[in-house]
Amino acid sequence: MDNGDTPLMCASQQGNIKIVKLLLNHPKIDVNIKNNEGGTALMFAATNGHLDIVKLLLDQPIINPEMQYAQAFLLAIQYGHNEIAEMLAEYLNENLRTLSIFNSTENGNIEKVKHLLNHFDINVNTKFKTGDTPLMFAAYFGKTEIAELFLKHKDININLSNNEGVTALMFASQLGNGEIVKLLLNRPEIEINKKAENGYTALIYAAGNKCSNELKLLLNQPTIDVNAQDIYSITALMYAAQRGNESEVELLLEHPNIDVNLQDDEDYTALMYATRNERASIVEMLVNHPKVDVNIKNKNKITPLNYASRYGYKDIVESLLKHPKIDVNAINCYGDTALILASEKGYEDIVELLLNHPKIDVNMPSADGVTAIMCAMAQGHRNVIDMLIRHHANIISTVDFFGLTPLMYAIESGDVRLIKRILEELNKLDKSSKSKVLKEKNEFDETVLDCAKNTNRKKIINLIQSELESEEEEEEKEEQQIEPSKEETEIVPTPTEPSKEQVEPTPSVFSREEVTPEFIKNIHDELFEAVSNGDIDKIDSLMESKYKDGELLIDINKTNKSGDTPLIIASNNNNHQLVRILLSYDADLSFKNKINGDNALIRAARNGHFDVTVELLNKNEKIINSSNKKKRTALMESTEEYFLRIVKLLIKKRAKTSIKDINDKTVFDIIKKFTDKKKKRY
Fold first, then answer.
1. Mean pLDDT, residues 606-614 taken together
2. 393 within 8 A of 372, measured Cβ to Cβ
């Protein structure tokens, strides 16, 4: 037989009782043998309604009788052979009989369920191994008519819960089975606010699983607890806000008893959950609620505005700032304001929004005495620095916990233009104030000149020395004007040669007639050579090259024959100090090599240059998910090369793991190629 059917199976299927009797009299007959599909002679007889043959087979010694009886029993019910089913039921124990009601419910076979309920003494509240009742099965699988059958049973208990504390109402509510929810809510004994082991109620399940119709039914119940909290004190509103379920949030906010400011065990509110998960539309809905408190802090003393400003969520910042009671200067546990956090990250659009708020304190320091402009200086965010200065940020006299001034921050950042700008402002001060800034020491016993010398950049050292010498000359002149000696008036000064450090090697200002295409090429060749050699002083000198009208000759984003910019070369060479300096000269982080599509971040990550990666991300985190021509991101490249430290950094900075490369592979596909030990670490 093609299906592995035996003669006994064929005779049982066809109802040929004479042949069945003959075969059963054979001494070597095996009634337990199965065909290729697992069928036995008993199953064939039960399926086709051959009662006499079923009786004959039941008199034979059957291996694993309960299993065969159960399968034959289910087949008899399925095909409407009730007399055979009743006969087989006598051979079944209670557990196997009740098992059939679960199978029938799951498959939606209402006739089976009716027959079982009408002809057998089945406990309608019996439980499966998971603790689920038949009613829960109906609620889970959305079998409304079968649920109605169970609900009509006189012994039904609709509030029973399974091993995890989940009830039929919870199943129907979280899976969108609204008709069953209606049936259950119409029962006077329904426990609408009952909680599962995790503390979830039917309302929480519906809100968290985007079941708006079911949520609406629950909210219309007069006894509903709209503010019920799970074991972590998280509410339905918090779950809906966290998951971006707009319709559900809207329904919950319309309920008159909603407490929009409830906090969980970490002191998170619904507004904080929406903010943390970048749900801008939901933030707007919550901000517009008349009872919302937009300034509530979590356990780390972070407000929604702090969080949104730290992670660059512009739309959310905009919504929060519209609230009339927003505390724009609220601080976190480190004393950081939203402005400090946004300035440190270089989020220009957010900094602008914050600066335009009428109550912003641009000079408010953190617990360490660091102001927004100091943070911007430390990270080299020039545009942010300019914005802060326009809004009267103090770049002269503020001092942090370590005695560092804005000028010291500027020197450390290596931004020559910023240093010059601060020095210009210094020269507007009175002599005493200027002298204090230039000569006072920080907690490390360093003056601004010491800080300049720490950079090992002649350009910066010369700038500070020149300023100090200028101040000394002024002091000498003042002394001479007060009491000039006879000898001093008679001495004729002899000219002295300037030191080599103070002499510019070449003039830095040119007329347009002097500048030929060959000249431009040569000056850029010098730049690439200086970058390759890490010659910072040479780069400083070249970056001073201008036309007489002030336009720069050097294009800092110029590419060489390989398609690399100076920044990409410095990143490739792991020169993080040079990377910072090039960024101070407005090198473009997003610029890509036209041949392979690499930018500086991808190149640094591929080569395992951690400090450079940090430097680039500190300048602009928004490039983190940029990809090259193979659609490979920095995360993919660092994962491929097993630079775990960089991988951790990128993940912490929220690099996306779902991006696919040109071969339709994600970072997880890359991990699959590794040994088990490496996989475990990832």
1. 95
2. yes
What is the domain count for the chain? 1
Compute CA 312 distance to the chain's CA centroid, rounded to the nearest angstrom.
12
Q: Residue 506: its pLDDT value, please? A: 46
Angle between helices 144-152 and 110-119 (to 10 degrees): 10
Which residues contact residue 396 at a Cβ distance below 8 angstroms, ignoring those fewer than 6 apart?
405, 406, 407, 422, 425, 426, 429, 433, 437
102 closest CA partner among 67, 60, 133: 133
User: What is the share, in percent, of the chain residues with pLDDT greater than 90?
Assistant: 68
Angle between helix axes 7-14 and 17-24 (nearest 10 degrees) is 150
Give the number of other Cβ atoms within 10 Å of residue 564's Cβ. Answer: 24
Mind giving me the DSSP string for 91-143? HS-HHHHHHHHHHHHHTT-HHHHHHHHHHS---TT---TTS--HHHHHHHHT-
What does the alpha-carbon distance between residue 457 and residue 447 come to, in Å, rounded to a whole number? 16
- Secondary structure element (H or E) that encloses residue 509, with its range: strand 509-510
Beta-carbon contacts of 79 under 8 Å, excluding residues fewer than 6 positions away, are 47, 48, 49
Contact 434, 464 (CB under 8 A): no
Specify if 121 maps to a domain: no
65 burial level (CB within 10 Å; 0-12, 13-18, 19+): middle
Strands 509-510 and 546-547: parallel
Looking at the chain, the whole-number percentage of residues with pLDDT higher than 70 is: 91
Q: What is the pLDDT of residues 54-80, one digit of tens each?
A: 989 887 876 566 567 778 888 888 898
Three-class secondary structure of residue 379 per DSSP = helix
Per-residue confidence band for 501, with pLDDT thresholds at 50, 70 and 90: very low
Which of these, 230, 177, 165, lies nearest to 204 by C-alpha position?
230
pTM of the model: 0.74
Instruction: Please name which of 271, 220, 234 lies closest in space to residue 249, comparing C-alpha atoms.
Output: 271
The mean pLDDT of 516-532, rounded to a whole number, is: 91
Q: Which residue has tokens 């003039």?
A: 507
660 touches 666 (CB < 8 A) = yes
In this predicted model, what pLDDT tens digit does every residue of 239-286 receive, in sequence order? 999 999 999 999 999 999 999 999 999 999 999 999 999 999 999 999
pLDDT surpasses 70 at 558: yes
Q: Which residues contact 357 (CB under 8 A, 6 or more apart)?
A: 321, 326, 328
State the residue for tokens 């000696």.
Answer: 485
Give bridge partners of residue 229 from the DSSP assignment.
Answer: 235
Angle at which helix 280-287 crosses helix 314-321, to 10 degrees, equals: 10
The answer to whether residue 633 is domain-embedded is: yes
Alpha-carbon gap, residue 530 to 552, rounded angstroms: 18
Distances (CA, A) of 261 to 220, 258, 298: 22, 9, 12
Segment holding 510, helix H or strand E: strand 509-510
Written as one letter, the residue type at 584 is S
Q: Is the pLDDT of residue 33 over 80?
A: yes
Domain, as residue range, for 600: 556-681
Tokens of 521: 């090429």
Note whether residue 393 is domain-resident. no
The answer as to whether 566 is a domain residue is yes
CA distances from 609 to 427, 510, 551, 645 (A): 41, 38, 34, 10
CATH code where residue 582 lies:
1.25.40.20
- Which tokens in the block code for residue 287? 């901000």
Region 300-308: mean pLDDT is 97
Are the beta carbons of 605 and 637 closer than 8 angstroms? yes
